[in-house]
Amino acid sequence: MRLHQATTAAQLATQLNATLIGDGKLDITGLNEIHHVEQGDLTFVDFHKYYDVALKSAATVILIDQVRQCPPGKALIVVKEPFKAYNGLVLAERPEQRWSDKVDPSATIGAGTWVATGAIVGPGAVIGTNCRINPNAVIGEGVVLEDNVIVGAGAIIGEEAFYFKKTAEGYTPWRSGGSVLLCSDAEVGANCTIARGVSSVTTIGRGTKLDAQVQIGHDCRIGEHCIIASGWHCWQYDGGRLVRISRAGWYCAKPYHW
Amino acid sequence: MRLHQATTAAQLATQLNATLIGDGKLDITGLNEIHHVEQGDLTFVDFHKYYDVALKSAATVILIDQVRQCPPGKALIVVKEPFKAYNGLVLAERPEQRWSDKVDPSATIGAGTWVATGAIVGPGAVIGTNCRINPNAVIGEGVVLEDNVIVGAGAIIGEEAFYFKKTAEGYTPWRSGGSVLLCSDAEVGANCTIARGVSSVTTIGRGTKLDAQVQIGHDCRIGEHCIIASGWHCWQYDGGRLVRISRAGWYCAKPYHW
Amino acid sequence: MRLHQATTAAQLATQLNATLIGDGKLDITGLNEIHHVEQGDLTFVDFHKYYDVALKSAATVILIDQVRQCPPGKALIVVKEPFKAYNGLVLAERPEQRWSDKVDPSATIGAGTWVATGAIVGPGAVIGTNCRINPNAVIGEGVVLEDNVIVGAGAIIGEEAFYFKKTAEGYTPWRSGGSVLLCSDAEVGANCTIARGVSSVTTIGRGTKLDAQVQIGHDCRIGEHCIIASGWHCWQYDGGRLVRISRAGWYCAKPYHW
Known about the structure:
The structure is a homotrimer. By secondary structure, the first copy, chain A, is mostly beta strands. Helix content of chain A is 10%, strand content 34%. The first copy, chain A, is built from 3 helices and 27 strands. Chain A has helices at 9-15, 51-56, 82-93, and strands spanning 2-8, 19-22, 27-31, 41-45, 61-64, 75-78, 108-109, 114-115, 120-121, 126-127, 132-133, 138-139, 144-145, 150-151, 156-159, 164-167, 170-173, 179-182, 187-188, 193-195, 201-204, 209-210, 215-216, 221-222, 227-228, 233-237, 242-245. Chain A is elongated, with a radius of gyration of 20 Å. Chains in contact: A-B, A-C, B-C. The A-B interface holds A 114, 116-118, 132, 134-136, 152-154, 185, 187, 189-191, 206-207, 209, 211-213, 224-225, 227, 229-231, 247-248, 250, 253 and B 96, 98-102, 118, 120, 122, 136, 138, 140, 154, 156, 159, 162, 164, 166, 169-171, 173, 191, 193, 195, 213, 215, 217, 231, 233, 235, 246-247.
């Protein structure tokens, strides 16, 4: 996810009362999990399998729980609980929202779009033209629909990612910093669920059609003009390397692109 | 689907600015896909596998994209894009509806029936006596429930069929001309989905019980006194010839009748 | 289920105009199916496989359709249709409810809890502190949520058990006398469904997280700190002896405890 306002490695180290190793003047422009990092991103690492991965990644700044040599062009911020610090930054960037209107005043609804009775549109959502949001569907905060998109009755677009960190207290949810994008002419069937990305944008490609009761997990990227039959559950994890589709389905015009 | 008002082959050919072959005085009383045609129906054909099937079918009038010899007692209407013409006729007969009331004033609700808070009933729906429509369930346009039917919370009855025509622009949805019928004493569990038929009536037989999260695809005909456990996804296609049930389920009092 | 007011075997026999065998002074303090009976409970038996099971069970009073020798410390009430009598008693204890408010005035909502727009809370439900009930979720009658519980958008908690008695007229639903309990820090994903117990309490343990579109059948007891991926359907029947989970899932921190 992009930050609304960039900060520097030094500023963040001060804010977290943490030790800085490396170049404190580097700008942090986004927050990302290790599997999706780009230049300018802050990420975190606290697990033996990922220290080297993180240090060699595209991330510019790394929250880390041990002192390491800092690669050139990067900065390390040493904290006791890197995940907790990271998750706090995501929460600060995207605080929990509570709204009371069916269609939040901060949402944008395009011309010719029908938001049916009982449908709910959260803060900051952007819905294009000539869309149809059927009864009792829910469009979450900041979700984006392009034009001519149909969302079936009871479908839920943009709930938090199902993504947890195991801690001493139990499973702690990562605050999802990502969102959902339904491209033009996409159709989502009744009672489908599409989770927001952990830090990227879960995407349904142009012209793709989902039957009823399809589940699209966080950070999936479904290609264009796919046909996904009812009962498919699509997951993606580990940086796009592994995809599990949990049931045999009907057919797909093009192979999935994640 | 039946037409509200019959037309003749000659009138339709004129309306479509198309060539007529055969008897122009024949009445068109319904629209149907090739797998469900009856006498009086108009159907279409544009695919090499189906020309002979269509010409030998019970259909009275056929939209077709090539000149063929017309069988006796039939009429052919030659158009460049038979599917587009056919779909336009279905859309004219069943135009898209948008409604703003929780229970549309044109719906009929029988005595003793409870439509719970948050439940939605579309235009022209007919609900019998002593039914229970639980919170946030959706009963679509023209759906019919007989008596003593229970629809679980969040269940969606009568969304469009998941049925598309592949065209140069992508997948074009067939407008569904069919409906859904829930016979007496049927029960539909929480968050189930039942799609309307493409041109026939998706039917749940008398006394049949669906657990939560069951999906019944368009044009399925589920028998009487069936028990369908959660997670079943029932599909029917290709004229009733092939049925796929995508998961092992619990049990079913009688075999499925499609 | 516990009765709000105890009765005696003799009083019930009189009420049902039935023959009493054994000690009429015994108190009936609860109603339970044979698989969950405790001392003080009334149960019923009408099937050859279960007569001995019932007579040897912890049940104090047994509705039965044949004359049998009564074990010491028990009472038998002989009726023609034990299930019908039993189900009538459950219905009398938990009559069908119809409510018209989004949040029923008899529900209890803890401090800091958000009931989102479109969400529905039934009579007698008890929701703890700092919970989040997302848009269009449904919390059924008498369902209990402890603290810090999240219920995803469109999730349905506490619909009737999918449990039927085969009778000459078809499948007759057992009236569910049980409920649902979501323990502290539990999270339920979008469009999940959790059925109430037939006579016990369907329970989701502390800290357990359900992804979207998970179904938890009646009387399941899911342990603490479990992670259940989307598309799992968990059932329990036959007294906890057999558990079917109908699909391969992601992972589970501890084995399921039913």
